[in-house]
Every structure is written in C-alpha cells, then in structure tokens.
Amino acid sequence: KLTEDKKFIHITDKTGIGKLKLIGTFNREILDKSTIKRVRLIKRADGFYCQFVLDIERVEPFDSTGKEVGIDLGLNHFLTDSNGDKIDNPRFLRKAERRLKKAQRKLSKKKKGSQKRLKQKSKVARLHLKVSRQRKDFAVKTAKALIQSNDLVVYEDLKVSDMVKNPQLAKSISDASWSMFTDWLDYLGKIHGKFVVAVNPKYTSQECSSCGNIVKKTLSVRTHVCSCGCVLDRDENAAINILARANTVGRTEIQALGQTIHCLLGESLVDKVTG
Q1: In terms of pLDDT, which residue wins out, 165 or 73?
Q2: Active site includes 72?
Q3: Is 63 considered catalytic here?
C-alpha cells in the first residue's frame, strides 16, 4: 500500500518486510491505486528496486518531420542509415573485459563461503550490471533520436537467436544488443506516434540499390560496386534497400501502431501516413 504522499510503500504480504521508503527520480503523480496492477521487489547487484506495473495509456506524439530512414545494423558500426550517416558500435562489454577478468580472477582466489568471496562476487555482479545499463541507455537514446527525427524508421527483421550460434561472432553480436535496440524502436514508435517497420533482411547487402542487380560479396568486402556504375559503402547500400522494401514491396500490409497500412508499388509510406 502507498502512503498518501507516495513516498513510502507498505509491503503487506507474509514476508514481514513492512514499510519501505521510495527514493530516486520518478513521476509520483502516475502512481494511483486505480492504475497499479502489480508491485514487485527486485534485487540487483547494487540494491533493491520497487517495480510498479501500471495500466495506463502513454501517448506523447512527436511533431511530424516528413522524413523516412532505413537502418542497417552491424558490428563495425552499430548502424548505418540510408543517408550514409553512421553510429559507432560502443562495445561496452569489450571495453569492460579487462576489469571483469581481473575481478573474476580475484573472485576465483577467494575461499568459498567467506565474506571476502561474497564481497568480491558483488563487485563482479556490479560490473556486469554497469554494462547492462550502458547498453540500455545507448539503445534508448539512439532509438529516441531516430524516432524524433523521422516519421518512418525501417530496420531488418534479423534472427539474432540464430546469428549468435556463430561462435566467432556470438560475443560481438550479444554485446551490440540489436534486439534490445529494435524493441525500443518499436515501443517508442508507438508512444510518439511514428511508424516503425521490420522488413525481410534477405539480400539487402547483395542487391544494388540503384539497379536491383545482385552483386555477391563476402563480409570482408566493405564497398558495393555494381556494373551499373553505383559505388557505395556496403552498409549504406543495404540501408537504402531496407528503406525501399517498406516503400515499394508491391501491395503489402505493414503492421504499425495497431493499424494495417496498405502501400502500392512505388508509393511512399510516409505520404500514405501523413497524406
């Protein structure tokens, strides 16, 4: 139960926890008995957190920009868009590996069951938690910037669970956290009234964005060169194809914001939505 000032919560189950003070920055106004559906206490490496599940409709529309963008997710760069802009891959886990390995070596030397081992185990857990929070912060900020700048964002519907089966790329793919990023894209698109579309990734890197010919290339080839004269960065070429698949895939149905949008061949989804 919440106190009237919403600064404390009473845990009334049989655990005997009792009264807890709520600290941190959050909007207390949205905490109401009619909207709170579930409350959970969560233990993390740096302490306990109170999680509220609320039944509310969150709609915060951004202004229309009339812009659309396709994005190609990668490992050399986190993403490359259809305008040729790139965002570096932050590689949070890779950057933290030295500290993690050092902390884990210390942990392995501590006597099992000792207070020193428990303390060191907590240090390792906090390092992992920091990486997790860095990934989330990066995903949210990057997704929000794209949503705010565009009316339509298109990305590849990658099967990440299959891709991480590659032992040479698994750690890098996991560190990039593509799935977290696209989940935030979908979520923020709904909240802010923008359209987010996932398309089939097949041949987006091999197909020429200028003429449609298939130009086969290995992962090591970073420049797309077609006989039609088109020369582009490989990832930019893919991003252009990704955007085109949402705009010109023949008569298709695209599920976004709970609506089914029909597009004809050559018709822009942005024009369809804003027209």
Answers
A1: 73
A2: yes
A3: no
